[in-house]
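Dear Dr. K.,

Following up on our conversation at the group meeting, I've run the structure prediction for Pyruvate kinase from Paracoccus limosus. I'm pasting the input sequence below exactly as I used it, so you can double-check it against your construct before we proceed with anything downstream. Let me know if the numbering doesn't match what you have in your notebook.
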Amino acid sequence: MRRHRKVKIVATLGPSSSDFATIRALFEAGADVFRLNMSHGTHDEQRARYDIIRRVEAESGRPIAVLADLQGPKLRVGAFAAGPHDLHEGQAFRFDLDDTPGTAARVQLPHPEIFAALEPGSQLLVNDGKIRLRVEACGPDFADCVVTAGGPISNRKGVNVPDVVLPLAALSDKDRDDLEFACQLGVDWLALSFVQRPEDVLEARELAKGRAAILSKIEKPAAVRAFSEILKVSDGIMVARGDLGVELPVHSVPPIQKRLTRACRAAAKPVIVATQMLESMIESPMPTRAEVSDVATAIYEGADAIMLSAESAAGAYPVEAVATMDNVARSVESDPTYREIIESSRQAKRQTVADAMVAAAREIAETTDISAICAYTSSGTTVSLVARERPRVPIIAMTAEDTALRRMCLTWGAHCVKTPELERFKQAVVNAAKAARDFGFADETNQIVVMAGVPFNQSGTTNILRVAPCDERLIYRTDPE
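The predicted structure tokens came back this morning:
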């Protein structure tokens, strides 16, 4: 099975998509990566979903990546004595540490770290930003506020603090337990929520011990400000537009999305655009025109992957949502304007031998009659560099490492193929030609570009590039033992 598009699709699993038939249908409709949301469901439920994914993978013969999304610290108000209360613009309201049930004038905010960071003039947002308050006075155990945008407030509603960097670790005790569970399970990627600083990513990396790649979710203003440093220590990025649109003016999110996507491409690290992409398909079999345009915009920008959340996890039409994304992607990528945009945004990188080689591979493929670029890799780095070039021809990512094989399922354009351990370059050429033919990228009359590093199975050794025929008889004739 091969995809007829370059962008990847991430589908979240949940109550609507936990059985074998549905997960298999999601994969066949176009899902390349499955997301396990650790905010919902028990470890046993997530293990059952993981086992089904691996069963689908084995039966299809195609690698599938699994992304475990850690919840992160959740900031919530306490409970109210008499149910919900309506807050009105201009009224005074207090947050404090007192665990007495709340009233129309106050409620507990059981997070002393917030009070330690607040200053007069700071904003507090409640219930996804529907309620907004400005801090007038504060101390180590209280914040006296004025309501600037009112609405109903009720038990355990979430709180956002956009103006300050909170002295909170990105990993709660629950996240640490979930991280260890996910790594033992065998997930390929860990998505880290509530990232504010590069140290948050380094902490997760230390706990993961190389068992999973680390993907940082950008959903806090502090993360946007520190993005360059966060990107350097991350293996990938998710533009999590939900909280980002709550804590920042909603009109600032599109340019941030574009800026972050381009930075990730320049760094040759995968980027996912996420949240509310086909939100109406939770209840409707058809998306809105605006949603289709939103998905298309992310693809035109060069995102490695686009993601479904509740649409596939809890919606009534999970398979249709994946199929819609697949159709939009095919349509966009067949548009001549897409190539113009992608190629005009290409940034020249010539800092290393590998940079120069992948640029040369792309130029050769686009100026001669080449059917595919076949890149051998042990870590996935070479394939990421090829994908950064966004070549017009398919990328066949070849590796003997299961870890790299699955992680590359998130990389733009990578068609991942498991290969045996190799000792000679001619073996690499023969295997590449066979893969190109087997998966329909070429026939015996075509040529491919083959990239590899000698000695094999050592990361960072990409040093050979060859234009080779797909006819194995010609390979043996031109490459004697």
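Two things stood out to me. The first helix runs from residue 20 to 29. The two ends are 33 Å apart (CA to CA).

Best regards,
J.T.
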